[in-house]
Amino acid sequence: MVYKKLIKILEFVLVIDQEMMREAHSCSLWERVLGSVAQRYLCADDLYMQQTQWKTIEQGIQRLREMTVAEIVFSDDINTKNPNLVPCTPVMWRKLVRLGPQEYSSALAIMKRDETEETALDMAKKL
C-alpha cells in the first residue's frame, strides 16, 4: 500500500515537473523526488513492490508504470527520467504477465517474445 501511494505521488510530481520545466532549473522537482526515493531506499529490494494480482487493463498499466518508476529510481542511466520512455524489459513483462489474469496470460506472453527495446508506453498501448 505504501508503494502504491508513493507511485501516485511520483506520477503527480511528474506532471508538476513537466510544467516547471518550461523555466530553466538546475534540478527539477521530479529529479529531486527520484533522488530522495533513491536515498531512502538503498536498493530495489527495500522498496516494497506490490505482488498482488491485477484484474483490469487499467490495473495492469498501473502495475507496469510502478515497475518503470522503480526502474528509474535504481537505474544507472541518468538520462531516463520519464516512466513512459523506460524500456520494458523482458523481466518486467514476465512479472506483469505472471500477475495478470489467467485468461490474458498467453496473449500477453506473445506480445513481447523478443528482446526489442519497446518502451513502457509502447507496451501499455498494446494492452
UniProtKB/TrEMBL annotation:
GO terms for cellular component: Golgi apparatus. GO terms for biological process: response to virus. It comes from the Eukaryota. InterPro entries: Fv1_restriction_factor. This is Uncharacterized protein.
